[in-house]
Amino acid sequence: MTRGTLRTGPALLAACLALAATAGCGIRSTNVPVDAGPAPSRASCDTAMETGAGTVPGTAVAAATEVYLVCGTRVEAVPRPVDVTTAGTDRVALAAALLTELQNDPDEEEQAAGFTSAVPLDLAVTGPVGDDPDTVLRLSERPSDLPAFALAQIICTFSRVEQLGNGHAVVLGGPADSPDPRPQTYPCSAAMRHSPESAPSVGRSL
Protein backbone atom coordinates (compact mmCIF):
# COMPACT_ATOMS: atom_id res chain seq x y z
CA MET A 1 0.00 0.00 0.00
CA THR A 2 2.86 2.23 0.75
CA ARG A 3 4.22 1.85 -2.84
CA GLY A 4 0.74 2.43 -4.19
CA THR A 5 0.37 5.57 -2.12
CA LEU A 6 3.75 6.85 -3.25
CA ARG A 7 2.83 6.34 -6.94
CA THR A 8 -0.49 8.15 -6.55
CA GLY A 9 1.21 11.53 -5.97
CA PRO A 10 3.27 11.59 -9.22
CA ALA A 11 0.35 10.20 -11.20
CA LEU A 12 -1.96 12.91 -9.93
CA LEU A 13 0.64 15.58 -10.66
CA ALA A 14 1.10 14.28 -14.21
CA ALA A 15 -2.65 14.31 -14.77
CA CYS A 16 -2.87 17.92 -13.61
CA LEU A 17 -0.02 18.96 -15.87
CA ALA A 18 -1.65 17.22 -18.82
CA LEU A 19 -4.93 19.00 -18.11
CA ALA A 20 -3.16 22.36 -17.92
CA ALA A 21 -1.37 21.70 -21.20
CA THR A 22 -4.63 20.74 -22.88
CA ALA A 23 -6.30 23.90 -21.66
CA GLY A 24 -3.35 25.90 -22.97
CA CYS A 25 -3.99 24.58 -26.47
CA GLY A 26 -7.42 26.16 -26.64
CA ILE A 27 -8.36 29.53 -28.14
CA ARG A 28 -6.95 32.38 -26.16
CA SER A 29 -9.35 34.65 -24.38
CA THR A 30 -10.18 37.89 -26.15
CA ASN A 31 -8.80 39.93 -23.26
CA VAL A 32 -5.27 38.74 -24.07
CA PRO A 33 -3.46 41.11 -26.52
CA VAL A 34 -2.71 39.46 -29.86
CA ASP A 35 -0.31 40.92 -32.44
CA ALA A 36 -2.30 40.79 -35.68
CA GLY A 37 -0.01 43.09 -37.64
CA PRO A 38 -0.39 46.79 -38.40
CA ALA A 39 -3.79 48.32 -37.98
CA PRO A 40 -5.68 49.12 -41.19
CA SER A 41 -5.52 52.70 -42.43
CA ARG A 42 -8.22 54.98 -41.06
CA ALA A 43 -8.02 57.30 -44.05
CA SER A 44 -11.48 57.77 -45.51
CA CYS A 45 -10.21 59.00 -48.89
CA ASP A 46 -13.37 61.06 -49.09
CA THR A 47 -14.13 64.76 -48.81
CA ALA A 48 -17.50 66.30 -48.23
CA MET A 49 -18.29 69.05 -50.71
CA GLU A 50 -21.18 71.26 -49.73
CA THR A 51 -23.54 72.44 -52.43
CA GLY A 52 -22.12 75.56 -54.02
CA ALA A 53 -18.57 74.99 -52.80
CA GLY A 54 -16.06 75.97 -55.42
CA THR A 55 -18.39 78.43 -57.09
CA VAL A 56 -16.71 81.52 -58.46
CA PRO A 57 -18.43 84.67 -57.16
CA GLY A 58 -20.61 86.29 -59.79
CA THR A 59 -21.14 83.07 -61.76
CA ALA A 60 -24.11 80.75 -61.80
CA VAL A 61 -22.19 77.52 -62.19
CA ALA A 62 -19.82 75.66 -59.93
CA ALA A 63 -16.23 76.14 -61.03
CA ALA A 64 -14.71 73.23 -59.14
CA THR A 65 -12.45 70.92 -61.14
CA GLU A 66 -11.27 67.50 -60.06
CA VAL A 67 -7.59 67.03 -59.32
CA TYR A 68 -6.08 63.76 -58.19
CA LEU A 69 -4.29 63.38 -54.87
CA VAL A 70 -2.66 60.41 -53.19
CA CYS A 71 -4.67 58.59 -50.54
CA GLY A 72 -3.19 55.41 -49.15
CA THR A 73 -2.10 53.21 -52.03
CA ARG A 74 -4.13 54.90 -54.77
CA VAL A 75 -4.99 58.27 -56.28
CA GLU A 76 -8.44 59.79 -55.86
CA ALA A 77 -10.19 62.88 -57.19
CA VAL A 78 -10.91 65.91 -55.01
CA PRO A 79 -12.57 69.20 -56.04
CA ARG A 80 -10.45 72.32 -56.46
CA PRO A 81 -11.58 75.84 -57.46
CA VAL A 82 -10.13 75.94 -60.98
CA ASP A 83 -12.66 77.18 -63.52
CA VAL A 84 -11.80 75.34 -66.73
CA THR A 85 -14.89 76.71 -68.47
CA THR A 86 -13.29 80.15 -68.78
CA ALA A 87 -9.79 78.96 -69.63
CA GLY A 88 -10.25 79.51 -73.35
CA THR A 89 -7.60 78.05 -75.62
CA ASP A 90 -4.56 78.69 -73.40
CA ARG A 91 -3.85 75.05 -72.65
CA VAL A 92 -0.47 75.71 -71.04
CA ALA A 93 -1.89 78.26 -68.58
CA LEU A 94 -4.65 75.83 -67.62
CA ALA A 95 -2.18 72.96 -67.22
CA ALA A 96 0.05 75.19 -65.09
CA ALA A 97 -2.89 76.14 -62.87
CA LEU A 98 -3.81 72.50 -62.33
CA LEU A 99 -0.17 71.58 -61.70
CA THR A 100 -0.01 74.29 -59.03
CA GLU A 101 -3.07 72.77 -57.36
CA LEU A 102 -1.28 69.43 -57.27
CA GLN A 103 1.80 71.06 -55.76
CA ASN A 104 -0.15 72.89 -53.05
CA ASP A 105 -0.54 71.25 -49.66
CA PRO A 106 -3.91 69.52 -49.25
CA ASP A 107 -6.33 71.61 -47.21
CA GLU A 108 -7.36 70.62 -43.68
CA GLU A 109 -10.36 68.62 -44.82
CA GLU A 110 -8.29 66.73 -47.38
CA GLN A 111 -5.52 66.04 -44.87
CA ALA A 112 -8.07 64.77 -42.36
CA ALA A 113 -9.37 62.39 -45.02
CA GLY A 114 -5.85 61.08 -45.61
CA PHE A 115 -4.85 62.93 -48.79
CA THR A 116 -1.29 63.92 -49.71
CA SER A 117 0.53 64.90 -52.91
CA ALA A 118 3.72 63.51 -54.43
CA VAL A 119 4.13 66.13 -57.18
CA PRO A 120 7.52 67.93 -56.96
CA LEU A 121 7.31 71.63 -56.16
CA ASP A 122 9.81 72.57 -58.89
CA LEU A 123 8.01 70.76 -61.71
CA ALA A 124 6.81 72.95 -64.59
CA VAL A 125 4.75 72.39 -67.73
CA THR A 126 5.04 73.87 -71.23
CA GLY A 127 3.40 73.32 -74.58
CA PRO A 128 4.46 71.50 -77.75
CA VAL A 129 7.77 72.24 -79.46
CA GLY A 130 9.01 71.64 -82.99
CA ASP A 131 7.00 68.94 -84.73
CA ASP A 132 5.01 68.00 -81.65
CA PRO A 133 1.28 67.49 -82.10
CA ASP A 134 -0.84 70.28 -80.65
CA THR A 135 -2.03 67.94 -77.92
CA VAL A 136 1.40 67.56 -76.31
CA LEU A 137 2.19 68.92 -72.87
CA ARG A 138 5.86 68.84 -71.90
CA LEU A 139 7.02 68.59 -68.31
CA SER A 140 10.33 69.93 -67.01
CA GLU A 141 11.24 66.34 -66.09
CA ARG A 142 10.78 63.21 -68.13
CA PRO A 143 7.58 61.47 -67.06
CA SER A 144 9.54 58.27 -66.43
CA ASP A 145 11.82 60.13 -64.00
CA LEU A 146 8.98 61.40 -61.83
CA PRO A 147 7.80 59.58 -58.71
CA ALA A 148 5.20 57.07 -59.89
CA PHE A 149 2.44 58.49 -57.69
CA ALA A 150 3.17 62.03 -58.90
CA LEU A 151 2.93 60.91 -62.53
CA ALA A 152 -0.37 59.16 -61.82
CA GLN A 153 -1.72 62.37 -60.27
CA ILE A 154 -0.71 64.42 -63.31
CA ILE A 155 -2.00 61.90 -65.86
CA CYS A 156 -5.44 61.68 -64.29
CA THR A 157 -5.78 65.39 -63.51
CA PHE A 158 -4.82 66.50 -67.02
CA SER A 159 -6.63 63.75 -68.91
CA ARG A 160 -10.00 64.55 -67.33
CA VAL A 161 -9.96 68.15 -68.58
CA GLU A 162 -11.28 68.54 -72.11
CA GLN A 163 -8.75 71.20 -73.11
CA LEU A 164 -5.82 69.00 -72.06
CA GLY A 165 -6.87 65.41 -72.68
CA ASN A 166 -9.66 63.39 -74.20
CA GLY A 167 -11.37 62.40 -70.97
CA HIS A 168 -9.28 59.33 -70.29
CA ALA A 169 -5.74 60.01 -71.57
CA VAL A 170 -3.21 62.81 -72.03
CA VAL A 171 -0.10 63.21 -74.20
CA LEU A 172 2.98 64.00 -72.12
CA GLY A 173 6.66 64.47 -72.83
CA GLY A 174 9.75 65.64 -71.01
CA PRO A 175 12.17 68.42 -71.93
CA ALA A 176 12.83 68.57 -75.67
CA ASP A 177 16.58 68.23 -75.07
CA SER A 178 16.28 65.19 -72.81
CA PRO A 179 17.21 61.66 -73.89
CA ASP A 180 14.34 60.12 -75.88
CA PRO A 181 12.13 63.22 -75.69
CA ARG A 182 9.32 61.68 -77.74
CA PRO A 183 5.95 62.28 -76.09
CA GLN A 184 3.65 59.39 -75.24
CA THR A 185 -0.03 58.89 -74.54
CA TYR A 186 -0.76 58.13 -70.89
CA PRO A 187 -4.21 56.74 -70.01
CA CYS A 188 -5.86 57.25 -66.63
CA SER A 189 -7.33 53.79 -66.14
CA ALA A 190 -9.02 52.42 -63.03
CA ALA A 191 -6.21 49.89 -62.70
CA MET A 192 -3.58 52.63 -62.73
CA ARG A 193 -5.50 54.76 -60.22
CA HIS A 194 -5.55 51.83 -57.82
CA SER A 195 -1.92 50.87 -58.56
CA PRO A 196 -0.14 54.20 -59.23
CA GLU A 197 3.27 52.52 -59.14
CA SER A 198 2.45 51.30 -62.67
CA ALA A 199 2.16 54.86 -64.06
CA PRO A 200 5.65 55.05 -65.65
CA SER A 201 4.92 51.93 -67.70
CA VAL A 202 1.50 52.87 -69.11
CA GLY A 203 2.81 55.34 -71.73
CA ARG A 204 2.23 54.42 -75.37
CA SER A 205 3.96 55.84 -78.45
CA LEU A 206 1.97 58.22 -80.62
Q: What labels describe this entry?
A:
206 residues, alpha+beta, 5-stranded mixed β-sheet, 3-stranded antiparallel β-sheet, 5 helices, 28% helix, 16% strand, globular, disordered N terminus, signal, Lipoprotein
Widest sheet: strand order? 4-5-6-7-8
Largest sheet: 5 strands, mixed
Total number of strands: 8
> For the terminal residues, how far apart are their CA atoms?
99 Å
- What's the helical proportion of residues? 25-40%
Shape: globular
Mean of residue pLDDT values:
80
**Structural Rg:** 29 Å
The count of helical stretches stands at: 5
Q: Which structural class best describes the helix and strand composition? A: alpha+beta
**Residue share in β-strands:** 15-25%
Uncertain runs are: 1-10, 16-41, 48-62
Element-by-element helix/strand order: HEEHHEEEHEEHE
Write the layout of secondary structure elements.
Layout: H1 2-24, E1 65-71, E2 74-80, H2 91-103, H3 108-112, E3 115-116, E4 125-126, E5 136-139, H4 148-159, E6 169-173, E7 184-187, H5 190-194, E8 204-205
Parallel strand pairs: 5-6
Antiparallel strand pairs: 1-2, 1-3, 4-5, 6-7, 7-8
Description:
This protein has 206 residues and is an alpha+beta fold. It has a domain at 65-205. Helix content is 28%, strand content 16%. It has helices at 2-24, 91-103, 108-112, 148-159, 190-194, and strands spanning 65-71, 74-80, 115-116, 125-126, 136-139, 169-173, 184-187, 204-205. The protein has a five-stranded mixed β-sheet, covered by helices on one side. A three-stranded antiparallel β-sheet has the order 2-1-3. Strand 1 and strand 2 (74-80) form a beta hairpin. Helix 2 (91-103) packs across helix 4. The longest helix is centred in the N-terminal third of the chain and has 23 residues, at 2-24. It is globular, with a radius of gyration of 29 Å. The termini are far apart. Residues 1-20 form the signal peptide. This is Lipoprotein. Keywords: Signal. Residues 172-206 are annotated as: Disordered.
